[in-house]
Predict the 3D structure of the following.
Amino acid sequence: MSVPKLSQTSTNRLQDADSTEAVRDLPPSAKLVAKVLEYNETMTQSELADETLLPPRTVRYALNRLEDQDLVDSRFSFSDARKRLYTLDIE
């Protein structure tokens, strides 16, 4: 089983001190989801589950933990209002 490749963006937003501190105490699943969102601008829960190879329930838990820490923004998808799009919210 191979691990999916992550597309890279020009910024590495989780490297600054404030971001590292905010992510440090989160569970491993939340750290993985944050790292995947760092490299992929916007993703749905199902895309995150596919990319991280985590179960959907674990991805939901990770996203809830990241939202509690104000590290993730979510909005409704214009193409499918049943889905939410998640973006890493770290300056």
In short: The first strand starts at residue 42 and ends at 43.
